[in-house]
Each structure stands twice: as C-alpha cells, then as structure tokens.
Amino acid sequence: MVTTILQSVRRAAGVARSLSAEFLDLVLGLVLRAATFSEQWLTGRKKALYGLAVTRFLLGLLGAGMVLTNWSTRYYAYGAGSAWTGEHLWPGSDFATLWLTRFFHDIGEQDLLLSLAMAGLLLVSIALMLGWHTRIVMPLFLLGYVSWIEMNDLLSDQSDNLVRMVLIYMLFADPAARLSLDARRRAKNRTAVRRWSRWRARLHPYDTMFNNLAVVVLVLHVAFIYMSGALYKAQGDTWSHGYAVYNPLHVDRFSVWPELADAITWWGPAVVAISWGTIVIQMMFLPMLATRTTRILALMGVMTFHLGIGILMGLPFFSLAMIAVDAVLVRDRTWRAMGRAVRDRWRALGDGEAAQSPAKPVSGRRSAGAAPTPGSPVRVDDEAEVSQDADLVGSR
Q1: C-alpha separations of 319 from 105, 127, 395 in Å
Q2: What gap in Å lies between CA 130 and CA 61, rounded to an integer?
Q3: How many helices and strands in the chain, by DSSP H and E?
Q4: Are 176 and 137 a contacting pair, CB within 8 Å?
Q5: Which of 10, 116, 373, 390 could form a disulfide with 395 if both were Cys (CB 3.0 to 4.6 A apart)?
Q6: What is the model's pLDDT at position 198?
Q7: Which residues of the chain have pLDDT under 50?
C-alpha cells in the first residue's frame, strides 16, 4: 500500500515537472517570438512614410495658415500694440525666457522686425510643406513656431501643445522620405542616390529604429488624448445625458454656421447618438486600431469629429493639427492607392482635353512621346526604392 502511494506520488511529480518544463518552454518561446517580432518591426523597414509625409505637409500648412490669418492684426496681437496683454513684461510662458525660443519675445516691440520674422516663419512653413531640406527646416520651424505662439497665451489653444510635442517626435522620424522635394532630388540625382544608398546602409538600423519609435510615440500620444478626453467627457452631465454636441453649436462665440448647426441638431436622437458615439470611439480608439475594419471606423469617426469642429465651430487649426497626427494611422498602401487614383484621374482629364483639341502637324523631329529609336539610351533609375520617394510629386 505504501509502495503504491509512493509510486503514485513519484509519477505525479514527474508529470508536474514535465508540465512545468513544457509551460516554461512555451513562455520562453513566446518571449523570444515577441522579441524577434519587435526587433524586426523596429529595424526592418521604416513604417508610415507616407503618413509622416502628410503629417509634415499639414503641419507646414498649419503654420503658414496661422501666419497669414494673423498677419493683418500682428501688431495688436503680438507687436508693440499688444502691451495690453502684459506678455512683454510678464511672460505667461517659460518659453519666452529660454534662449532657444525667446527670439520673437525679444523683437516683439519692434514692428518691423516682427514683420520680417513672421515672413521668415511663413517661408519656413512653405519649405516644410514642400519637404525642402527638411532636416534643417523642421528644427527651424519648431523653434520659430514655439517662439511665436508663446508670445500671447490668450490666443493659444491645446493644439499648440500637441503641435509642439509632435514636432519634437518628428525630429527623430523621416518625414521627407516621400512626397517631398528632398525625395525628388534624390530620385533624379544618380550621384546623390549612390551616396545616399551608402549612408543608408550604414545608418539603416538606427535611422529605421528612431523613425518607427517616433511613429509608436505619435500613435500612443494621440490615443491617450482621445482616451483621456473620453474619460473627461463621461464625467459631465451634458455628455452623459446626450446633449453635449448641441450646446457649443448654438453659442454665439462658436456657432459660425447657425443654419447648418440647426440642420444637424434638429433631431434629438441624432444629437444623442453623436454625443455618445464620440465618447465610445475616443475611449476605444487604441483597441480599434488592432484590425483593419475597426481601424477604418475609428479613423472615419475621429476625422468626422474634427471636421465638424473645424467647420461648425470655427476652429480650423485645432482640427488640422489633430487630423495631421491621425494621418500617420493610414497605411502606406492606402496613401499610394489614393495617389494613383488622383494621378490617373488627372491624366484622364488631360487626355480628354488633348482629344478635343485640334491635331497639330507632326514635325520632322521625333516627338517626346514617340517610341525611341533602336540604340537610343533609355533612362533607368539606379535605385527603385528611392525613385518611389517622388512618385506623387511629379518625378514621372
């Protein structure tokens, strides 16, 4: 009897050791697979290059738009006429005391220098939009934008904080790899392509890792903004009762299109659905990025939300800042497909106009679109991947 019990105990111990060893092997295997996947994802290839390019373009557009819309009131809002704010004597932000971002604060009382500085910021914004020498232009845009915005806290909003942090993240990314003059220059200059290829081979693991980490931080940042906003909204009675969307659309300060606001909010159930749907989408934004279908729904929801804020409430720059960051979440293949559709449509319109125009006599010289004669040189790009960098900015 005792022998049987001892044998049973030994067998049970052996089974337990075997199960524990298998469980340990399973856990170690999962950890190794996760580590391998993370390493390949971070250092394999750069992610969201088209999304980062769109983000770069929209941020440059935001800077240029803000300078142009504030140009007529620049003296009263930022120059010598803004003494009523007290910002010149008692800055409301620490950025006005830092040597990197105090430039506009130091020249704010001199209207001529302020005008020249704002014109320079406008040129830098346009250069950022076009992707011209982006590695140099983006830090200049960051410092100039922050220095200018922090001159008057009364005219700022939460989008300024978002843009400032996003620009810092993008210093470590590669937002000029697509849809930029930098990419087009590399695609056309064979010497630059070969030189860039050698440097890319040396710096590829590190450059790719920083780019992908910047993408991760951007996604987490915007997801936390949405989730924290949803938690804050859920605490208010107006959101929990479902009429929060109605109130700001009918306030004189924000209702820039009262007729359109009346048309959207005339049916109570729709107002409740929009209010509660906003909370749900913002709260579940990060989990909804896991699959393609839910990601599309989440992006459509937040894009509609921001477009509504920008158009109906007269806050275009706040909405543009949020949409610029959300652009990173759209896959590269989707951006390429949209670019091809626009390019094909543009070519179709050009072919239609050419077909309606009278035919021109053909000269003795071979036309540019004719087939090359035997033995004529045909241009072939040295780097196919680099040539794709400018496929949507007119390199073809």
Answers
A1: 27, 22, 31
A2: 10
A3: 18, 0
A4: no
A5: 390
A6: 66
A7: 362-396
Q: Rounded to whole angstroms, how far apart are CA atoms 261 and 246?
A: 8
Q: How far is CA 153 from CA 90, 117, 160, in A?
A: 11, 19, 10
Cα–Cα distances in Å, from 375 out to 342, 345, 370, 378, 379? Answer: 35, 34, 14, 9, 12
Residue-level pLDDT at 29? 78
Q: Are 233 and 279 in contact (CB under 8 A)?
A: yes
CB atoms within 10 A of CB 5: 9
CA–CA distance, 10 with 18 (Å, rounded to integer): 12
Tokens of 157: 């909003």
- Residue 101 to residue 245: CA distance in whole angstroms: 38
Q: At residue 232, what is the residue type?
A: Y
> Is the CB of residue 32 less than 8 Å from the CB of residue 317?
no
318, 159 contact by CB (below 8 A): yes
Neighbours of 239 (CB within 10 A): 18
In tens, the pLDDT along 307-333 reads 989 988 888 999 999 999 999 999 999
Q: For the residues of 99-133, what is the DSSP string, one character each?
A: TTT-HHHHHTT-HHHHHHHHHHHHHHHHHHHHTSS
Neighbours of 16 (CB within 10 A): 10
What is the model's pLDDT at position 54?
96
Q: ∠ CA(295), CA(297), CA(301), 5° rounding?
A: 115
How is residue 266 annotated by DSSP?
Answer: S
Instruction: Check if the beta carbon of residue 302 is closer than 8 Å to that of residue 283.
Output: no
Please compute, for residue 22, the number of CA atoms within 13 A of its CA located in the half-sphere on the CB side: 6
Q: What is the DSSP string of 275-314?
A: HHHHHHHHHTHHHHTTSHHHHHHHHHHHHHHHHHHHHHSS
List for the chain the helix, strand, coil content (%; round to 5). 75, 0, 25
Q: Which of 111, 102, 103 is nearest to 83 (CA)?
A: 111
Which among 343, 341, 328, 290 is positioned nearest to 49, based on CA atoms? Answer: 328
Residue 29 burial by Cβ neighbours in a 10 Å radius (0-12, 13-18, 19+): exposed
In the chain, the amino acid numbered 16 is A
Distance CA 271, CA 312 (A): 14
Task: Name which of 148, 53, 131, 46 is nearest 95 in CA terms.
Answer: 148
